[in-house]
Amino acid sequence: MAENNALLRRLQNKGTLVVAEGYLFEFERRGYLKAGAFVPEVVLEHPDLVKSLSEEFVHAGSDVVLAFTYYGHREKLRTIGREGDLEKINRQALEIAKSVAKETGTLFAGNICNTAVYQADNEESQRKAEAMFKEQIEWAVEAGVDFILGETFAELGEATLALESIQKYGQGVPAVITLMPTATEFTIEGVPIAEACRRLEEAGAAVVGLNCCRGPASILPLIKEVRAACKGPIACLPVPYRTSLEFPSMQSLKDPFSGRQAFPLDLPSQLCGRSEIRNFAEACKEIGVEYVGLCCGNASHYLREVAEVYGRTPPASKYSPDMSQHILFGDKSKMRDYYTGKVRQAIVTQDS
């Protein structure tokens, strides 16, 4: 692993990185990606929008531009009949991320993920998974990535295979490996999450940690355990939904009106407020999380909260809220009494 690598330099001496994930859900929300298959076809069909969202996340404070190749692997493309577009979609996504990173002076990352073919008890499935990792890793290396993220692994075995594949085919590019903490505190094989992260760190991952599935409230207890178990940089990128110890994953959440499973279509009813995201970031900073961000459901106004807590003043901070200027709830000495009094009282039932 090259000591002069950009990722490693940034994380030296307790350095930190703010990282935007969440492209998948955001493009589904905007109407450019289908829920269910969740394949990043938008990379081919609307590359300008992928570039724009990448720029927007940097504007909000991301230190990394992640190539949008999550679920852009062979198995997912086969599912929708577009396996022939595999190389094109990966190279296009990498080129978009590379151009934005170069323009903004941020880090450029490749991305591999859970394969939907790996099975712990099936060697043939593992060979297929490694072959899928290999092709995406080699394209990322050709594009000149600063590091490769392997993410959203519920099984330690698949996460380990991803790490080994990056080490085998990545030509020394560092690996960031994040596990997906499910509704339990264990990997699918039954390994405690913190222990699994420790094993990945000892196997050579530059950063280890958790992403996706759990929201801030239910991921924080686990990331504390990861911090205690690991010596090097750790990562925490939850989904911005109101999970709890009773409902620890976004998939377990219930819509408050219908009582039905909220995932995925009614998850907006479960979104965190910005203050909750700020509180999460403050907790991560206190715990000692060096690689921090948000996953599925992320949006720029959330990421700005994280970035500001971590000491950044991104361009988007120019527009951070200032409620003292609000016509109803602002500084009464500067606003019209008619609005801060009569109109305000008509709108709110209990004025705090």
UniProtKB/TrEMBL annotation:
- Please indicate which superkingdom the organism of origin belongs to: Eukaryota
Q: Which InterPro entries match?
A: BHMT-like, HCY_dom, HCY_dom_sf
- In Gene Ontology terms, what is a biological process of this protein? methylation
Keyword S-adenosyl-L-methionine appears in the UniProt entry: no
Domain Hcy-binding intervals = 5-310
Recorded GO molecular functions are: methyltransferase activity; zinc ion binding
* Pathway, per record: Amino-acid biosynthesis; L-methionine biosynthesis via de novo pathway
What cofactors does this protein use?
Zn(2+)
Details of cofactor binding: Binds 1 zinc ion per subunit.
UniProt entry keywords in alphabetical sequence? Metal-binding, Methyltransferase, Transferase, Zinc
Which residues are listed for Zn(2+) binding in this entry? 212, 295-296
What is the designated name of this protein? Answer: Hcy-binding domain-containing protein
What broad taxonomic lineage does this protein's source fall under?
Answer: Eukaryota, Metazoa, Spiralia, Lophotrochozoa, Mollusca
